[in-house]
Amino acid sequence: MPSGDTPVEEIARIPMPGSSTAGASTEGATGVLAVPVAAGAAAEKPSTEESSTRADLRLLRTESGLRARCAAGVLVPFLLYTVILAVISRTDVYLIWVWIPTVTAGVLVGSLLDIAHGKARQQGTNQSGVDR
Q1: Distances in Å between the alpha carbon of 11 and those of 27, 89, 125?
Q2: pLDDT at residue 120 is higher than 60
Q3: Burial class (CB in 10 A: 0-12, 13-18, 19+), 64
Q4: Contact 19, 31 (CB under 8 A)
Q5: Element spanning 71, H or E
Q6: Which of 21, 44, 55, 92 is deepest in the core (most CB within 10 A)?
Q7: How remote is the C-alpha of 58 from its chain's centroid?
Q8: 35 Cβ contact partners less than 8 Å away, ≥ 6 residues apart
Q9: 3-state helix, strand, coil in the chain (%, to 5)
Q10: Looking at residues 36-65, what average pLDDT do you find?
Q11: Residue 9 CA to chain centroid, in angstroms?
């Protein structure tokens, strides 16, 4: 019986790949891995704290100015990239180097969202009167 602080409801038996008891020198070898499963392990409650993705989406839904800045943060790098490749007459390599505006757009949008979260956090502390 496994020892530990948490009660054990059951022992899950997982067959080991390539295990064979034929020719084994140890008696009682089963070729099965026994893994203790703690009681209530699957019934953990989800965190009440909002995930960063949910917080980003909430900000984008509620703040139209932020939504416009993020859209511009995605479009501008691709427009500049297209114009630069057209000016230097190298549109044949467009798909090879498309990662550059993709990464740039991601960094811009991430920065805009981080700034918006900081402002929202600051406004939240100012409204409650508690400095953090």
Answers
A1: 21, 66, 49
A2: yes
A3: exposed
A4: yes
A5: helix 64-87
A6: 55
A7: 17
A8: 11, 12, 13, 14
A9: 50, 10, 35
A10: 76
A11: 32
